[in-house]
Amino acid sequence: xxxxxxxxxxxxxxxxxxxxxxxxxxxxxxxxxxxxxxxxxxxxxxxxxxxxxxxxxxxxxxxxxxxxxxxxxxxxxxxxxxxxxxxxxxxxxxxxxxxxxxxxxxxxxxxxxxxxxxxxxxxxxxxxxxxxxxxxxxxxxxxxxxxxxxxxxxxxxxxxxxxxxxxxxxxxxxxxxxxxxxxxxxxxxxxxxxxxxxxxxxxxxxxxxxxxxxx
Length: 215
Fold this sequence. Notes:
There is one protein chain. The protein has one domain. The protein contains 8 helices and no strands. The chain has helices at about 1-15, 25-50, 65-85, 95-105, 110-130, 135-150, 165-190, 190-210. Helix 3 runs antiparallel to helix 4, helix 6 packs across helix 7 (about 165-190) and helix 7 (about 165-190) packs antiparallel against helix 8 (about 190-210).
């Protein structure tokens, strides 16, 4: 676990994988899950003590939705589309950028402002890579994680300007998640970053189940 944390720290510091993690995928994903859970709990306690953190009504987007629709969106579609959009293009290959663009079109087809920003971003990135401009990989990794964090504000039912504690928790945990998902992508590939995202999303889905069945 210590080596995993050290390798991950090296990744977020340099923006590249210096040594391949050769442990089995199961152990790798388990350690990634433990690291993510530990950071989540730490920030949850920190936010509660410092900002009197309160989620409010979480996951506005799933309000009044049937169980199978929530499962389809939270466990299947969200991990696939978010990983393709926010993670795949960080590999900085032309086909990866194009697939991320397609993912953005599917993910944000009902929000022209967000989609337009993504289209401009991906077209600019595609142009730079295609003409051989050296792109700072670490900047792209952090920028994609920042996008991933900020976009999740819309999933929660609170005023993000008036409730700084809630906004702080949601954005910072998602930025960290974005960095960790990207590390999984760099080490094991996009399929396993999607799988890891699915596994993590089981936690909020279980929370939804408890509310759905009033347990």
